[in-house]
Amino acid sequence: MSVRLQPRSVLHDERVAAVLGIALGVAFGVCFATGVLSHLIQNPPSWFHWPSRPAGLYRVTQGLHIATGIAAIPLLFAKLWVVFPKLFERPAFTGVAHFLERVSLIPLIGGGLFQLTSGVANINQWYPWPFGFLLAHYWVAWISIGALIVHIGAKWSITRQALAKRSPPDATEHGDTDIATTGIATTGIATTERRTFLLTVFGMSGLLTLFTVGQTVGFLERLTLLAPRRPSVGPQGFPVNRTAAGVGVLEAARSPDFRLQVDGNVRRSLTFTLDELNALLQHGATLPIACVEGWSTSQRWQGVRVRDLLAMAGAPAGASVRVQSLQDHRSSMLNGSHAHDRDTLLALRVNDEVLHIDHGFPVRLIGPNRPGTMQTKWVTRLEVL
Predict the structure, then answer these.
(1) With contact defined as beta carbons under 8 Å apart, do 304 and 312 qualify?
(2) Which end of the chain has fewer CB within 10 Å, C or N?
(3) How many CB atoms lie within 10 A of CB 48?
(4) Cβ–Cβ contacts within 10 Å for residue 235, how many?
(5) Which three-class secondary structure state does DSSP give residue 341?
(6) Torsion on CA atoms 117, 121, 126, 132, rounded to nearest 10
(7) The whole model's pTM is what?
(8) Parallel, antiparallel, or unpaired for β 260-264 and 379-384?
(9) How far apart are CA 230 and CA 22, in angstroms?
(10) For the stretch 183-221, what's the b/e string if a residue is b when 16 or more beta carbons lie within 10 angstroms of its beta carbon?
(11) Which residue intervals of the chain are DSSP H helices?
């Protein structure tokens, strides 16, 4: 026997669920694509090559990743509330397709909640769990998107029908004026409730995004009421995620014995003191730091081109480089495009000031179109591969 729970509100209907589902699918799709891209940039397989231009492309893609993730929060909870009565319908499934659709809800709902919760925690650099955020966030994203694809396939025809559905015919066609008047009034109230509900949900999603996206979009910074960082607040006028004291390099970075090494697959190994680096030809470039947590800022950097150091050491054309930090076990990779780009620098100054120690003094890497986590601070070695 089939048992169907009666919805408590006209909002628990397929049309509202369809509209929210489409919006949520778009948000999840953009968030997934940009998140996978960020993962590939930071952990590139042999077939993947991330270019150095346009210089601010990663700033856009990662900004979209965070913005769509935040926008999805009200959409997800509204969608769950709308379809909640359907979760308890009996029988639990009526066929193979229905069974797959019901089973897909477990990783879809669980994965969606995990992704949004862990993502917000990461933005705030709060990690109350024992597992690594990056791998968990990455693999749960694949599970969730797989479940979403199954769910879309199962619900495709129902969604189309719900969106194409029109209001019931006018009862006056059947000669009953009283019933017609009551039906029209009831239908009008229901339609108004649905529209008000959807406008409220989309409004909340928009406001939540507006009050956080200013950490990436400069002219909206004054509206950054909910973001954990403002892109103009910090030493030398922009934020810091990790301080020199926090990662244990304070003394080493200030040591007069600091040396920068250029070695590996080169004709001659080079070693520079800080004074010697300052005596080399300096180059300036305005480049963004685009952090994976969502904030970004552009600054004017001055320092030595990496490609000039590679040429001095006799590195092969197009060689990639491992950039090592004073921070233990911290390094990043420069592929051929980035290593030989005209604006990839070992920065010594920012905005005509010597780097603050929390921004990487004495030397930090800065290059176009790179995640902030790969703009290595406290650089001590360039290893040519």
Answers:
(1) no
(2) N
(3) 11
(4) 15
(5) coil
(6) 70
(7) 0.89
(8) parallel
(9) 32
(10) beeeeeeeeeebeebbeebbebbeebbbebbbbbbeeeb
(11) 14-42, 57-83, 96-123, 133-164, 177-210, 244-247, 250-254, 274-279, 306-313, 336-339
Phi, psi at residue 253, to the nearest 5°?
A: -70, -30
Residue 172: pLDDT above 50?
no
For residue 370, give the amino acid letter. Answer: R
- pLDDT band for 27, please (50, 70, 90 cuts): very high
Tell which phi-psi region holds residue 384, choosing left (phi > 0), alpha (psi between -120 and 50) or beta.
beta
**What are the tokens at 377?**
């601070």
CA nearest to 140, candidates 111, 165, 118, 166: 111
Structure-block tokens of residue 374: 């790969």
Q: What phi, psi does 328 have (nearest 5°)? A: -55, 130
Q: DSSP string covering 203-268, please?
A: HHHHHHHHTTGGGTSGGGGGG-SSSS--TT-SGGGS--SS-HHHHT-HHHHH-TT--EEEEESSSS
Reported as a single tens digit per residue, the pLDDT across 122-157 is: 999 999 999 999 999 999 999 999 999 988 888 888
